[in-house]
Specification:
By secondary structure, the chain is of the alpha/beta class. About 35% of the residues lie in helices and about 20% in strands. The strands form two sheets. Strands 1, 2, 6, 7, 8, 9, 10, 11 and 12 form a nine-stranded mixed β-sheet that branches. It has a three-stranded antiparallel β-sheet with strand order 3-5-4, covered by helices on one side. The structure holds flavin-adenine dinucleotide.
Length: about 375
């Protein structure tokens, strides 16, 4: 079996921008395009939006006798944001807008009409367009996805097959600081995770919910290692290797004694109630020397497929992975391979129908929110 799949255009995120980008790229038949969507239950902004489309000079406006032009649209935007924008970019976007609104109507069958009833601040003439029936962003996304499904060279990849690695996000401090609880990090120089990482975002959100306000120190992993050794920061958060510490943390530990700080069960419940999209894991006792089991946030990596992958193929693929699970640690040093049930327990996005069949066969309960419509 050939495992390589190459695409010419890889789009990350299947919201308004990603779907439109993929559709436009897919117009070139020689390009192979894939949209990778994490498929959160919380949905994209596009899906929950009102789905109104601001555009000037469309045929819908002309039919309603409204005189408008992209330049006027741009001036309205610039006036409303008091010039805090790049004028050229605003004008370019406003100039493209009517073409895209008409494209949605003509190429995708989105039932566009002018919507003078849906007013927004700052527009000097009626230029918001909506779908007939005002069903909003959900309909817009549905029609964009229908266009995608009809394009033979575009694949939408959003159904999880199996989890191949799990990394506990560990909060670590220099032992000599005497800090024994995450609550003592307020006001202290602390790196929430390397710049741009999921760990950085998780730490910010989790600490924010608990009211912990460190003096955030932004930097990459190599700088964190130096800053810890030089005692410029008290600690940092870092995704581990499985439940244990990763190589960079081990490197620091060769020179600086470290302490790992857990979240309590109460912390976990509080954060989960406020931010349900953050995944958690109970780190087993002994994973960190001298520590019992404890809660922490987790970084997960899944293998996903398009729902167009035949269920039987997905089933055989997932089964082959778990039947041959002794081979997995040779390529990934995570711990996911030890427990196929974690794929069904920890996933935040729907699983592929073929994968669901396999996990159910093993006796795992797949929660309703992970079962996509085609698998019901
Ligand atoms: C309530 C509400 C009403 C709004 N109404 C309007 C309106 O009427 N008109 C208007 O023009 N704008 C409106 N907006 C704004 C509009 O929805 C956004 O500007 C637009 O959706 C942004 O498009 P996007 O593709 O950047 O983001 P999104 O539409 O949010 O899409 C981002 C996608 O990326 C996915 N994703 C994120 N991270 C990853 C990852 N690491 N890997 C894979 N996938 C990932 C997400 O799951 C999501 O599906 C509204 C917004 C809201 C919240």
């Amino acid at each position: 079996m050939n495992w390589d799949y190459e695409v010419d255009v890889a789009v990350v995120g299947g919201g308004a921008c990603g779907l439109m980008t993929a559709l436009r790229a897919g117009h070139s038949p020689s390009l192979r395009v894939a949209v990778f969507e994490k498929g959160s239950r919380l949905m994209s902004n596009a899906q929950i939006s009102s789905g109104t489309l601001a555009a000037a000079g469309t045929r819908f406006q002309k039919a309603a006798g409204i005189v408008d032009a992209p330049e006027r649209h741009a001036e309205d935007v610039i006036r409303k944001n008091h010039g805090r924008c790049d004028r050229d970019v605003v004008l370019a976007l406003c100039s493209a807008a009517p073409r895209y609104v008409e494209y949605l109507a003509d190429a995708l069958g989105h039932p566009v009409e002018l919507a003078p009833d849906m007013s927004r601040v700052g527009h000097s003439v009626p230029r918001l367009h909506s779908d007939k029936g005002r069903t909003g962003g959900a309909t817009l996304v549905k029609n964009l996805k229908r266009g995608l499904a009809a394009a033979p060279n575009i694949t939408f990849v959003d159904k999880l097959l199996w989890m191949y690695s799990i990394s506990a996000n560990l909060v670590v401090v220099r032992e000599e600081t005497g800090i024994k609880s995450i609550y003592e990090l307020s006001g202290k120089k602390f790196n929430p995770g390397f710049r741009g990482s999921a760990v950085e975002k998780s730490s910010e959100v989790a600490f924010g919910v608990l009211g912990i306000k460190p003096d955030w120190q932004r930097m990459g992993t190599a700088d964190v290692v130096d800053a810890m050794k030089d005692k410029r920061i008290v600690g940092f958060a870092k995704a581990g290797a499985g439940y244990g510490h990763d190589a960079s943390t081990m490197d620091i530990a060769t020179q600086v004694p470290l302490r790992t700080l857990p979240y309590s069960e109460e912390d976990m419940k509080k954060i989960k109630a406020a931010r349900p999209h953050i995944p958690w894991v109970k780190v087993p006792a002994g994973s960190i020397k001298g520590m019992g089991e404890f809660w922490t946030t987790v970084s997960l990596a899944f293998v996903a497929a398009s729902k167009d992958m035949p269920p039987e193929l997905a089933y055989r693929l997932v089964k082959a992975i778990w039947d041959g699970q002794e081979h997995q640690p040779q390529s990934v040093m995570g711990v996911a391979y030890k427990n196929p049930g974690l794929s069904a327990q920890l996933a935040l996005s729907p699983l592929h129908a073929g994968a669901i069949k396999y996990y159910r066969e093993l006796g795992f309960k797949v929660p309703d929110h992970l079962v996509p419509p085609e698998a019901k």
